[in-house]
Every structure is written in structure tokens, then in C-alpha cells.
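Why does residue order matter? Because the sequence determines the fold. Keep that principle in mind as you read this record.
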Amino acid sequence: MINIQSLEYNYSKKINIFKNINLQFSSGKIYGLLGKNGVGKSTLIKNITGMLFPTKGNCEVFGLTPGKREVEFLQDLFFVPEEYYLPNLTIKELITIYKDFYPNFDENQFDTYTKEFKISKDKRVTELSLGQKKKILIGFALSANTKVLIMDEPTNGLDIPSKITFRNMIKDAFKEDRIVIITSHQVRDLDELIDAIIIMHDGQILLNQDKDAIAKKLQFELSENEKDDPTILYQEKVSNGFASIQKNTSDTLGYVDIELLFNAVLANKLKL
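Structure:
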């Protein structure tokens, strides 16, 4: 479990990124961490990974303090940043050097991913495109089999077929003792993956709920014309009509339109 209590972080005396954040991430879930640029998503992730240290409050990952950077902590957490550097090695050399840092690394699993992405392990990293480098990093991250996997904008640089492969890889590699946190502006890429949705804005958490709980409360609909219905909680024009949210009065769990939900929460039209 990741336990965050009364977390604050200041870049300077005048810039307070967080305002008393309280969050828990439980094993067995894939979390979608959503928010506009500059709301603090990356800063929150860096506090969890121990790359930044809280100004106030506490952050614990399976009982360990990230800022101490203990071996027990580092070997069970993998972070895929949006911007990254890979050394000028062949993929095979890369694996040989770095796999021992992760006791649960599965080389056969990694080989499967490279075949799915159609990338030879004999290739040097400098010979790969941006998208291919991202695929190798994602494959390594999944093969490390850490208890905590954090991915910042993982689908950036991936083409449409690769995004489908990425989603399938995440599903196949997911285990009940694992916490996966994914940030993305491309929320459609997360639709089939995530179990829980966290929406940040201005250093605060506006929404933190399981997707099934949201589906139980809300119903998402698409219609050709705008509806004049007082039961509609939120409505907006989309390319093929009007998308709306209203209370779910049935026992059926329907589809959750994450993008529409995000817009509604930021517009302060939903209180869940």
C-alpha cells in the first residue's frame, strides 16, 4: 500500500504545489492519475518515488519512506518517466547490466515483449526510434515485476497498434500484489485498463473513486440533439452529437466516459 498523509510540497516559499493531500493506493489496482499540465501530477509521482521530498506530511510505500532510497524500496519500484535517457548499449547489454537490480526480473517475459514489438535485442539503443525506445523501457518495466509500477505518459510516442499491444501487456503482466499508477493526457488510452480514477486540480484531489463505483452512480449517454432535462448533471457538445451524464437509476454498470467525467469534474458539475 502507498499511504500519503497531509502531503505538502513547495518549490519555493511562494509556490506551494500541494494543499494537504491525503491518498491511498492499494495493491491489486491500476490507477489513472489525471489532470491538466502543471497541477502537480509529476510532483506527486516524484514524492512517491523518492526523487523529491515532502515539505510537510508523510509518504510511505509498503511501510518504507521513499526519500531514504533504501535497497528494499528501490528494488520493488519502477518508474517510467515521460522524458528519459537510455545508455548507448545494445538491448541485450542493457538487460545484462540492469536486470540484477530487480530480483523478480523475468528475462523470458522481456523476450516475449521484444518479439511482440518486433525489436531485435541485438540492436543498439541509438538505432531505435523514439517509439521503439519507449517500447523497450515499458517492456523492461513490466518484466521487472516490482510491487509498484508508475508510468508517466507511457503512450506518448506509440502508434495506434503499439498502444493496443501496450494495453494487452499491462493486462497480462498485472498481478494482485501490484500497484500500477498511470498518468496520461490521452485518457482514451486508459479506458480499458484502469480500476480507479484520481483527478487533480490546483494541487488538490477533486475525485478519487473506483471506476465501478462511478459506473454505479452515473450513466453516460450520447444523443444527436441537446437535451433539456433537469436530471442531467453535465452535458457538452461533441463531434457526433451531445454527450451527457446523469444519475444511474438502474442496477446495470455501464461504460464510464473518462474524458467526459474529467471535464465535468473540472467544471465543478459533479460531486461524488
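The radius of gyration is 20 Å.
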